[in-house]
Structure formats: structure tokens, C-alpha cells
Fold this sequence. Notes:
By secondary structure, the chain is mainly beta. The chain has 4 helices and 42 strands. Helix content is 6%, strand content 32%. The chain is globular, with a radius of gyration of 23 Å.
Amino acid sequence: MKSFFASAILLLLASGKTAAQTESGNTIEWIAYGRSAGGDRYSPASQITRDNVNSLVPAWTYRTGENDIKTRRPAKLEVTPLMVDRTLYISTPLGKVAALDPITGKELWTFQADVDATTGWGDFANRGVSTWVDRTTPVTAHCHRRIFANTIDGRIFALDSRTGRKCTGFGTDGVIDLRRGLTNTPFEFAEYQLTSPPAVIRGMIVSGSSIADNNRTNAASGEVRGFDARTGRLRWTWDPVPRDSADPAWKTWGGAMGHTTGAANAWSVIAADSARDLVFVPTGSPSVDYFGGERPGDNRYANSIVALRASTGKVVWSFQAVHHDLWDYDIASPPTLATIRHGGKDVDVVLQTTKTGQLFVLDRATGKPVFDVEERSVPASTIMGERASPTQPFSSVQALSPQHFSSDSIFGLTSEDITSCREQIRPLRNEGTFTPPSLGGTLVIPSNVGGAHWGGLAYDKAHNIAVVPVNRFASMVQLIPVDQLDTADVRQNASRLGDEYTRMHGTPYVMRRRILVSPNRIPCSLPPWGALVAVDLNTGKHAWSVPLGDPSIMAPQMKAAAGPPLGLPNLGGPIITAGGLVFVGATMDRSIRAFDIETGRELWRGELPAGARATPMTYVVNGRQFVVIAAGGGEDWGRGDSIIAFALPQKK
């Protein structure tokens, strides 16, 4: 998520244990980022139902203490806590890890990794920790259960779950540094980051990385690596940019930088299937994002879901969702492993949403589409030296967000809004999704934020429904030759219009982009600007789609000013419970909501001290169900450092 997007909208508003083993009458755990290693985000907790959810009240609040710490870039509390062995575990952008009592929120221990707050981290966030049990040691032994905590500066710590002390036999004094051993070394500290927790599988942890990938063609390399969970020793490494001519994808990378470029990294959460010895890796765009003239070809493995053999790191299969990316269309959301009902039988699949607004359903063993995928012709590039892919894949599952923007779909609250948007859009190249960047400017829909975004989806097997939050904005992208750039114009536009400029070193261009809004900061796109979409996986069609977020909560005049529900920008994922509920925060309006899984009707809204740019979680302890979310998304979601638990009132 880039800050220009959030700024525009602010102005507008002026383990070793399986899930089955954790479930009993009084205790239901949340043992991984997506609850299970496969990330379906479905909990069997059913105490909170569609009939009583409106009675939820705050049960406790924990403050991390980081709200008042000055940072160079806004810090974003995006953690999804874990709850295991009657303890809640959280992590923060500044490197704090804490264990909490899940009933009271009381702090049990803390560990501080001391992240440098003065470094200009591009995405200053941390989404949580992972856990693993060392079954070769006694239950009472130090580090029998480990908490693996990644930090923004590229380190992974192994901590004892009971005390928070480092597991000194892991790596070097309890930590491994992922900056070491890369093919392409980071040129500055902030180029290489970790934002998502590692996957845990068969006694290993598997980690990707977050790379600033639009600054230079030879960005830091995006290796995915497997480490021994006990010792921290490197077991294998896999680079999504082929460096070996024997690799089947080698020929899909050409040009001067084809085999030396960087990025294509996996910055989202990696899913794991221990029974198959597979990890499912969502990869991003190669460097640089918006010009591929130095890396011609499809660039296979980038912008893909790649199944790796967990024990060796070898590619088993890959599916590319975007060929030769020119739009910053990373595979940002975690792959979701599910067993769906299709064609009258149960099928093990990978569900993958994309920034392009697609939902791909792939056979988990082979990577072949379960719902058909069609290669369709898309527009060619007009940039000298660039050759866009002539086709792109489109899923037969109904698109999650608009794929075209027509002149009669311009939105505005006033005639001034509409006139301004029309004038901005008229000169832009506008031929639908996958229209390449151009010298005169291109309308990009969905924007680089998505479409479906890093929040991902939740899957409910009982209803065979996947629920996905999406954004519905259009943006403008322009390539400006370096020798034609007016630096004074850059300074003026950067402050007045919210444009973002990036010098793409190794190319002859500067990238300029912005969300399309009027001078009154009203988006030019039709609302709802944010939505929650449910897809029926029996048919591939929408079961329901509802606006997500309400601008009038933050700016009451918006209620009277606009007729249709507007929705809001959202980042963060949903969860589903056996109580028939979908819980989601994600929006800027400082709320967490509950929706009916069958109809999409909003049943409850809980107020938060700041926007929740995070995915919630739920658990049961002593027979009481809690729903927990991090509030403090930073930027236009609002500063905050709160972890908040909701529950039904206790009976007196």
C-alpha cells in the first residue's frame, strides 16, 4: 500500500499442532496467521452468532506503547495475534513481541528487538509471529515451544514461548539475518525488509521478503529460503529470478538484465501443506515495476503462485497470474488452501486473489485451473523498447472488481468534480485492465493497490463461499523521460495533487502515478470504493457484494451529500466463524464489522480508537469466545497502538 492512495482519501473525508488438536469444548486456538497453516481463516467457534453478535462489547484493550514514538515513516500495526497454550502473542513494527493473558489482556512478558525508527522503511509494518514445538525436548524445556518473530530490518528471532528469552541455539544467539547470502545485495538498509511471519512446516521455517522494487533494475534479490527451525541453519534457497540456464523458466527472461534483475519476492504470507511437503509462495513483480524493457519475456515465477517442495525448495509447479508485469500487480494476498465442493466431489485447491480483481482456483497437487482460465488479448505497449505480453490470464470466476472504466461512469458530488475528472481522464490511454503505462499517461484499473489486496480471503466450507475485501479505484500512471522531467513541477504536484514520482534507475524513465480524484478529493470512480464480496464456489458467481466502510462516520456531511453507499478504502482481511459470521476491520472509519455469511447483511459494528489495517482473529478460552483486532493502521487509518478484544457480556 502506497501512501499517496491513503492521503487522497484522507483529504476526501477532510506449528507442530494441527487445528483439530486445539479444539475442545472450552478452548479453540488460533495457531497461525490464517488460523491454520493453509490460511483458510475459518474458526469453529460458535458462541457468537448472528442472533447475539449485536451484544458484543469490549472485553479488554492492550496498548503496545509505540503510539508516541517518533518514526521517519508512519508505522502500521497490522498484526494478527496468535493464541496457543492459553497465551496470546503479538508483534509490532518497532520489534516488540509480547505475550498476553487471553482473558484479561494482561502482559505476561515482552521482548524488544530494537528496530531503528529513524530508517525510512517503505512499508513499516509487521503482521505477526509464527510458532513451532520442538518435540525432541521435554515439555518443560527452554524453547520447547518457540515463537518466531520477524523484524522489518530483515531478522528472525526464536523466542521461548513461556519467558520471551531468546533460543540461543538458533542461528547466532537466537537470531538469523536474512540480508546475508543474497545474490543481489541491498543497496541501502531500507531496500530489504520483512513484514510477514514465516511459514512453519516439517521442522522448518520458510521466509520470503519485502523489497523496494521500483527504484533500480538490479534491486535486492527476492530469494525464498528454508531454515531449520531448531538450529536456524539454511536448508535451501530458491530465487524466483532464474540464474541457471537449466531452469525451465530461464528462456522467459531475456535482455540485458533478465537474469540479474531483482525482486519478484514473496512479501505476503506463505501457505503450507505438510501432508504434501509443499509450500505455496505468492511472488511479486520483478524490478522495476513499470518498465520491463530490460527484462523482456513473460518473466515466469514472478507474479505467480509457486508450489515448492518444502524439504528441498525445488519447484513442483507454478501458475503465473500476470505475464511481464508493468503495473505493480504483485501477488499480494496469501494463498488459501481449501477443500471445495466442485463438480460433485471434494477437490483440494489453492484459492488466490490478485490485485487485478481475479480469483484463481487451482488444483493443489498440479496447479491446473479448477475453474477455467482464458488467455485473452490485451493492449500493446507504445513505449520504445517495451514489449508487453500480448495476452493475460483471466479467470472464469466472476471478477471481484471492475475491469473497465468508461467516461459515463465518472463520479462526483458536484459538477466541478465531474468536469475535473473528465478532463483528467480524457487524454489518458484507457483500454481496460492491462493497458500498459505510456508517455501521455494511462488509466489503470484496478490500481496497483488492488482490486483484491494483501488482506486476502476467508473460506467457509459449510457454505462453499470465499469472502474477499476489495478496493474499486482507478489510477493514472505515466512514464516521463528523465531528460524531460521538470523538477519544479515534481515539487508542485507532489504537494498539490498527491502525485508520486519514482526515478527507476537503470531505465530512461521516471514513473509518475496518482489515484484519480477531483480537486475536492472525490474519487472519479463509481462507488462503492470499498466492498466485501462473497464468491459461491459452486458456480464461480458472486453470492453477494456489499459496500465496506462508511465515510459519514468520519465526515457526517457525506451521508447527505451522496445517495449510493460509498464504501471506503480497505486493507486487511476477513475471518469466518461457525456462528455464521464474517468479521472484518480494514477500513479507514475506525470500525470492525460483522456480516451475515449467507446474505452479506451488516449485523454489528464495533468502534475502534484508530483504523484497523489488519486481519482479526478469534479464540475460545474457558468457554468464552473473543474477537481480537489491532487498531492503528497508520497514515490515514490513524495512529494507534491498541490490541482490542470483544466478547459477549459475562453473565452475572
